[in-house]
Design brief:
Length: 427
Amino acid sequence: MLDIQLLRKDLASVQARIASRGITVNWDEFTALEQQRKEIQTSVQDAQAAQNRISKEIGQAKAKGTHTPELMAAAERYKAQLAGSEQRLAEIQARLEVFLLVIPNLPHATVPLGAAADDNVEQRRVGEPRRFDFAPKDHADLGAGLGMMDFETATKIASARFALISGPLARMHRALSQFMLEVHSNEHGYTEVYVPYLVNAASMRGTGNLPKFEDDLFGVPRRDAEKLYLIPTAEVPVSNIVRDDIVALEKLPLKFVCHSPCFRSEAGAYGKDTRGMIRQHQFDKVELVQIAHPQQSYELLEQLTSHAEEILKRLDLPYRVVALCSGDMGFSAAKTYDIEVWLPGQNGYREISSCSNFEAFQARRMQARFRNEKGKPELVHTLNGSALAVGRTLIAVLENYQQEDGSVTVPAALRPYMGGVERLARG
RNA sequence: GGAGAGGUGCCGGAGUGGUCGAUCGGGGCAGACUCGAAAUCUGUUGUCCCUCUUGCGGGGGACCGUGGGUUCGAAUCCCACCCUCUCCGCCA
């Protein structure tokens, strides 16, 4: 959510920065609502002040045992006057709130301008894509060849966009999560957390998933309680740890790492990535979340991104980092780096991590604050990034480490997590 | 599933219609004492919004789980919802 003060003070620059995302907003509606709000709020508060004063006088008179019919009459007049205008004010404020809830974040000054993914700017490439002296397969063929990846059965059990993996490949999937968790908690200073995978609407609103993106989520209705939602990423529960909290200055930055399954309806992705396990309704991810002092957040974004990169380096997977352009960034982000891993099966780079600084956008929705140097509550900045998407990392390992006979070498960094197994082969 | 209790400020915990934004204790901050610290004593300490000044600051409004209602006036009364806890049952 944007700071309404900023819209009041400098609407023109907000408009320009939102426009750079390629989004159109009915700003006239905002201006009109603001004007009404201002008028009504002033008059309502004046009337409330008068009414409070009179009620207080009545109380004092009663204490002395005096009867005051003329004061009662005056109070009733104010009451009648307030009845309608208070309600109108509430309606206008509710509409302003809704308006603000669906406006995306402002891109940071360093975000490249652009309309779509083509305009993203590559920051660096690390590692050379391997040259194959045979035609490399994609992960779906490799997985099927190993007899360890079965989409038909997954569809029978659930539906399309689910996977069933088994045996050593399932073990490698587990090993990847363990490996990532160990690196981040032992070497990068993150506190490991285990969190609820179902969250309430307030948490979804906090991170920006609601109200605008309800269609992307799986909802879980309950008979006698509030509806819950399956998390699309651990970002939601982990960021909401600090919702409605005031964190002590010296505790910043808070750094959390969390492994969780993620559930996405992929409502807008019909026909996209239908082969293999690139895009699933359910996938595992290790997520980094930082709760930061505003002055530090951009420095921390670089660090957080490097933490995600470290996993790829240790797995010796070639990748590149791109800065998303204004038109390609997500709703809540002020700046985003995507990390794209080389996938021989697709002969291209494919997103495996997304690291963002949300500045105060989520913090304002969550009312997540810290006590600043002056002792005053101030909104924190939130950051997060995948480090990494486990399913896609598994794919990347399969495709990059495949051998001509269809077997797959286990990356050295993973072997300690797999009981020393060095190779996946058809059993 | 059955029965009951409760949601108040950073924390604990009072408060059942009228200077209650809220007694008190703890914590935090400042000061006194001390070489320093502890202990003790004194003072101080909420958030959000509107508005004027736009540096400090002044005026006003709202907030005692959430949303409605009753009333001139509600933390206090009524209704609905959300949540927490205890006991019994069931259960990984």
